[in-house]
Structure formats: structure tokens, C-alpha cells
């Protein structure tokens, strides 16, 4: 018997892979959704890169339904996303479109999956960004997309949002995650302020198990200092 069922959108990325591994280690059935396969997951749904937003939604919601065979999910976790810099002077539309696809499409498709396949009192976790609580002139497309995820989180937490009764919807707002790629590009940074991937996966597991749950609709900043992470809800 598995402890429960979760799907991880972005299951092949650094944080997504850590989540797949952590939930598998805790005896969960895990589905991965990403642009490439994660062979450690029980089911790996590969999203067509060139599909439109509505095509991707229909495909993902349908495939998740097939793989569940009538069962329901304990959690839908979206840790897909990416980063692009840039201001309004050069390539604004190009950067903004990429960020929209990576953060907003994935978050909204995750919401559609949750609306159809999450059990009552289940978890929908999205990924926002602390910088997007304010202006982001050096990364405008990124800030716009993450602000949209924050708005989506608050909308989904409201009544009549289409999610099952008692659902918890939250966004995690990391500052910097301790990933191999970040270490490669920022070797001299203070890594004690970076949030370990296992720490994030552990939080998500607790909330899935209905332990230490935050308030519905919370935007939770992950603030790490000297290797210790605390959650601070954004107002």
C-alpha cells in the first residue's frame, strides 16, 4: 500500500527531482509532469514542447486521469519554472513569453489537474518568487509571471474557485535554492542563505500529510540564514 498519491509538475528539474525522490522514499505513488521523462517516478508524463496552452492542459489533465484509474491525489505540486533577466529595452516580449510558459502555464494547468483529480482537503502547492512581491526592473518578464502565480494562488484559495472542499492552496516563494546550476553560476555567493532542496521537499511532504499546514492562500517566503530556513508569510 502506498502512503498516498502526488503529482509533481516540473518533476525533472532540480527541485522537482528532489521532490520525486523524497515522496518516493516516503512510500508515495508519484507522477512526474515535465518536458522530459523522470524514470524514478511511477508515471512520467512528457508534455509536448510545441503544444498550445489549452492543448497542454487537455493532455496533462487527461493523462493524469488515466494514470490514477479512479483514485484521487493527495497533492498537486508545481515546481516548474525558470529564470530570465532583462528590462524593457531589449527582448521584453521574448523573455516575458518564456517566463509565462514556464511559470503561469504550468501553474494554471496544475490548478486544472487539482480541480479534477485532487481529493478533498488535498494540497495544491505552486511556486512564486519573493522578488516579485515588489518591482523587478532587472527581470521584468520573470516578475510579471511570478506575480501572476501569486494572484492565482489567492484566487484558488477563495470560495467557488473550483477546487475540492477543504483544499489547501499555497505558494512557496524561495529566494535562492541550493541547486547545482546556482552553485555553478554563483560559486562565491553565501550558500548559507540558500534553501536546500530537501528542506523544501520536506515542507511539501508535511503539508501533504496535513501536518503543520499554513493558512490557505498563503504566499510563504523561504528565508534561509546560516543554513536554517524559516517560513514568513507575505502580507
TrEMBL record:
Substrates-to-products reaction catalysed: 5,6,7,8-tetrahydropteridine + NAD(+) = 6,7-dihydropteridine + NADH + H(+); 5,6,7,8-tetrahydropteridine + NADP(+) = 6,7-dihydropteridine + NADPH + H(+)
Coiled coil: none
Keywords: NADP, Oxidoreductase, Tetrahydrobiopterin biosynthesis
Keyword Nucleotidyltransferase: no
GO MF, one example: NADPH binding
Keyword flag NADP: yes
CDD domains per UniProt: DHPR_SDR_c_like
GO CC field: cytoplasm
The enzyme's E.C. designation: 1.5.1.34
InterPro entries given in the database record: NAD(P)-bd_dom_sf, Sc_DH/Rdtase_CS, SDR_fam
Chain's role: Catalyzes the conversion of quinonoid dihydrobiopterin into tetrahydrobiopterin.
Annotated family: Belongs to the short-chain dehydrogenases/reductases (SDR) family.
Subunit structure: Homodimer.
PANTHER family, sorted: DIHYDROPTERIDINE REDUCTASE
Protein name, per record: Dihydropteridine reductase
Amino acid at each position: 500500500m502506498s502512503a498516498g498519491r502526488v503529482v509533481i509538475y516540473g518533476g525533472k528539474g532540480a527541485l522537482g527531482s528532489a521532490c520525486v525522490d523524497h515522496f518516493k522514499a516516503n512510500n508515495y505513488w508519484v507522477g512526474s509532469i515535465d518536458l522530459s521523462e523522470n524514470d524514478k517516478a511511477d508515471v512520467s508524463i512528457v508534455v509536448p514542447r510545441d503544444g498550445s496552452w489549452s492543448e497542454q492542459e487537455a493532455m496533462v489533465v487527461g493523462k493524469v486521469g488515466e494514470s490514477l484509474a479512479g483514485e484521487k491525489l493527495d497533492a498537486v505540486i508545481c515546481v516548474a519554472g525558470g529564470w530570465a533577466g532583462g528590462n524593457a529595452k531589449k527582448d521584453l516580449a521574448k523573455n516575458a513569453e518564456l517566463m509565462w510558459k514556464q511559470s503561469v502555464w504550468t501553474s494554471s494547468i496544475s490548478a486544472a489537474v487539482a480541480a479534477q483529480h485532487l481529493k478533498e482537503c488535498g494540497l495544491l502547492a505552486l511556486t512564486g518568487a519573493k522578488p516579485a512581491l515588489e518591482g523587478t526592473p532587472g527581470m521584468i518578464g520573470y516578475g510579471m509571471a511570478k506575480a501572476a502565480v501569486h494572484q492565482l494562488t489567492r484566487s484558488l484559495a477563495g470560495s467557488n474557485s473550483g477546487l475540492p472542499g477543504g483544499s489547501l492552496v499555497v505558494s512557496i516563494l524561495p529566494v535562492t535554492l541550493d541547486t547545482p546550476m546556482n552553485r555553478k553560476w554563483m560559486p562565491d555567493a553565501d550558500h548559507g542563505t540558500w534553501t536546500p532542496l530537501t528542506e523544501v521537499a520536506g515542507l511539501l511532504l508535511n503539508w501533504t500529510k496535513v501536518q503543520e499546514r499554513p493558512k490557505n492562500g498563503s504566499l510563504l517566503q523561504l528565508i534561509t540564514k546560516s543554513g536554517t530556513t524559516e517560513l514568513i508569510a507575505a502580507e
